[in-house]
Design brief:
There is one protein chain. The strands form two sheets. The chain has a five-stranded parallel beta sheet with strand order 2-1-3-4-5, sandwiched between helices. Strands 7-6-8-9 form a four-stranded parallel beta sheet. The two termini are 32 Å apart. It is built from eleven helices and nine strands. Helix 2 runs parallel beside helix 6 and helix 7 packs parallel to helix 10.
């Protein structure tokens, strides 16, 4: 897994090359966008929706279930995101999108999604297969940028910002690895409590998922200001098994920052440690990818400290095998 994380910027460059060569058709009269996918294929939709929420004129909904929302119709752009092309929940949602006559674009490495897309002649962007889906976020997320940008839903040149992000992350690589290694030691044998300050919840969700799959650990995440209205009340007693990690950007709202500064004293009082990870970069895209990359490194370093295989996900494989018996 560390080799895959080490090659993140190369993946982004390859993803850009794929995006620039992708042949798409303009969609018409779109009133809403639904990105349907799960796990490593679904988190890109969450991150996309946050990155463009201040300029996209139509809502972006991320669907992580077997069923699409009832509002989906012929004026919906449904993006089918399945790395393997065989995710059963996504295939179920894809069949519903077809029944609802939605305008469909697919991002996949192959499988049943590609076969269905070829049958119905849907726009499809093929990305390289053969890796754990969670290690290929760069491939899929850049294609989401391409689809949104191509169809005129954003004025920002997202693909150009990805290009600048590659140089930026290459320059920051060693510093990111050093900081990630230090943080990993703080989180070893702890339960990470991950908070974001509103503007980048998708990156915190991504970090949670990487801790789950790569580090084989339970953790949870929440976001400010929402947690100020519920979870904050749970901080009432000392628990040294908890270690707080915050994901922050320069785009965090001033009132939310003040909320966190007040809460931080409480977290420090009742947990083992509080670690702030401040994103670097000149744009939201750079800062989001910075947080994604450092989170990936932290999860891998924890796996190293535990002397475990970051790639294996046997429990998920077993679940899929059991479900296959029901078909």
């Amino acid at each position: 897994m560390k080799n895959l994380v080490e090659g993140f910027t190369k993946q982004l460059q390859e993803a850009l090359d794929i995006a620039h060569k992708a042949v798409l058709t303009k969609k018409n009269n779109i009133q809403n966008i639904v990105v349907t996918g799960l796990g490593g294929s679904g988190i890109g939709g969450t991150i996309l929706s946050e990155l463009v929420q201040t300029e996209c004129p139509v809502p972006i909904i991320v669907n992580k279930d077997y069923f699409l929302p009832d509002f989906v119709n012929s004026n919906s752009l449904v993006i089918i995101s399945s790395y393997s092309g065989n995710t059963e929940e996504t295939l179920s949602a894809m069949k519903q999108a077809i029944d609802k006559n939605a305008q469909i674009v697919c991002v996949t490495s192959g499988g049943e999604v590609q076969a269905i897309a070829e049958k119905y002649k849907y726009d499809t962007i093929i990305i390289p297969g053969g890796h754990p889906p969670r290690s290929c976020l760069g491939y899929s997320l850049v294609q989401l940028f391409k689809i949104i940008q191509f169809n005129g839903f954003v004025k920002t040149d997202l693909l150009n910002q990805v290009q600048s992000t590659i140089s930026f992350l290459d320059a920051e690589r060693e510093a990111i690895k050093v900081e990630a290694s230090i943080i990993a030691k703080k989180l070893l044998h702890k339960i990470p409590v991950i908070y974001s300050l509103g503007s980048c919840e998708g990156t915190a969700v991504r970090f949670r998922q990487q801790i789950n799959e790569n580090s084989k650990m339970l953790c949870w995440h929440h976001t400010l200001p929402e947690m100020n209205h519920n979870e904050l009340v749970g901080w009432t007693e000392k628990n040294d098994s908890l270690a707080v990690v915050t994901f922050r950007t320069s785009f965090d709202y001033s009132r939310t920052i003040k909320r966190y500064e007040i809460c931080k004293e409480l977290f420090a009082k009742y947990s083992h440690s509080v670690t702030d990870i401040m994103a670097k970069g000149n744009s939201k895209v750079e800062q989001f990818f910075y947080l994604i990359n450092i989170g990936d490194w932290i999860s891998c370093y924890i796996a190293d400290l535990k002397n475990i295989d970051a790639i294996e996900v046997n429990v998920i494989t077993n679940l899929k095998n059991e479900l296959a018996k029901l078909n």
